[in-house]
Amino acid sequence: MRGLFLTSVAFAALALAVPALADDAKPLAGKSITVLLPSPQGATIAADFEKDTGIHVDLQTLSWDDIRPKLVTALLAGTAPADVTEFDWSWTGQFNAAGWYLPLQDVIDKDTVADIGVAKIFTVDGNLLGIPYTNDFRVMLVNKKQFADAGITKMPTTLDELIADAKQIKAKGIVQYPIGLPLSPTEGASTSWYLLTKAEGGDLFDKDWKPLFTTPDSAGYKAMALELQMLKDGLVDPASTGLKDSQINDTMFAKGLTSIMISGEPGRLGQFADPKQSSVAGQVEAIVVPTASGVTRSYGLPEALGIPKVSQNQEAAIAFVKWFTTKQFQEANYANGVLPTRTSALADLAASGKLLSGDALVAQAKTVEPLFAQGTPTWYPQFSSAVNTAINAVAKGQITVDVAMKNIADASQKAMSQ
Amino acid sequence: MTAVAAMASERKRGAGGNTDAFLGVLLITPIVLVMAALVFFPLIDTVWDSLHRINPMQPGTPFIGLANYANMLTDGDVNASWINTLIYVVIAVTVETVAGVTGAALINQVKIGRQWVLAAVILPWALPGVVNATIWLWIYQPGAGLLNGILTAFGLPFENHVWFNDRTSAIIAVVTVHIWRMLPLTIVIVLAAMQSIPGELYEAARIDGASRTSMFGSITLPLIRSAIAMTNGTVAAFNFFDEAWVLAGPSLDTRPILIQIYLEAFQNLHFSYGMALSLVVTIVSLLVSLVYVVRVYRNTRLD
Question: Structural domain tally of chain B?
Answer without folding.
Answer: 1
